[in-house]
Amino acid sequence: MGDLVGLMAVTKSVSFGYSRDLQEDKPPVWDALDQTHGALVTLTGAVRTLKLRPERMRELVDANFAVATQLANWLVADRRVPFRQAHEIVGALVGSFSRAGRTFADVATVVEGLAAQGVEAGEAEMADVLDPLAGVRRQASQGGPSPAEVQRMIAGLQADLAAAHQAFETDAAAVDAAQARTAARVAAVVGG
């Protein structure tokens, strides 16, 4: 971002000022490319060695109240509770559960806690609301994390990558042909 701001500062008034300012436009671009390359190398190594442990992930989701936002969103969308109040209700539940050493995996106690706050819900309904996988599936808006949306985005990106690869191959062939024509003309001039 710093390189972009620097580049924009150099180019903002080029047409009105010193025409050699564009000599200064290359260093931020080179630095940005170097930084991006380094980040991609690091990310590639991280992804290559990544080991997913779904059991541990589920354990942490339950222990860390990661679905608290889902519960607040459900209160707003399904029970028409104003968000400020939903935030207070969920915050109170998280606080009391933390002090008692409980988690949202104890669905019956969540239902009791909500009832104490004036919100009625059944255990089956609450189990679905607090299920992290169901919550992810519900996030089906464009660009969201639902499996169907992720698969749609993957397919789109694969198609874009295939098109970019084809365009690169076409451009590379055109460059090779131009180099061959140039070499033939140089040879004709030098040899002739």
Model description:
It is a single chain. Helix 1 packs antiparallel against helix 2 (26-48) and helix 4 (68-79) packs antiparallel against helix 5 (83-100). The chain has helices spanning 2-11, 26-48, 54-63, 68-79, 83-100, 107-116, 123-129, 132-138, 147-191. The mean pLDDT is 92. It starts with a helix and ends with a helix. The chain folds into three domains: 2-48; 57-138, Ribonucleotide Reductase Protein R1, domain 1 (Orthogonal Bundle), CATH 1.10.40; 143-192. The chain is an all-alpha fold and 192 residues long.
Summarize it.
With 192 residues, this protein is mainly alpha-helical.
Task: Bin the helical content.
Answer: over 70%
Number of helices: 9
Report the principal-axis shape.
Answer: elongated
Determine the strand fraction and express it as a percent band: under 5%
- Radius of gyration, whole Å: 29 Å
List keywords for this structure.
mainly alpha, 9 helices, 3 domains, elongated, Ribonucleotide Reductase Protein R1, domain 1, 192 residues, 74% helix
Topology overview:
Blueprint: H1 2-11, H2 26-48, H3 54-63, H4 68-79, H5 83-100, H6 107-116, H7 123-129, H8 132-138, H9 147-191
Helix pairs in contact: 1-2, 4-5
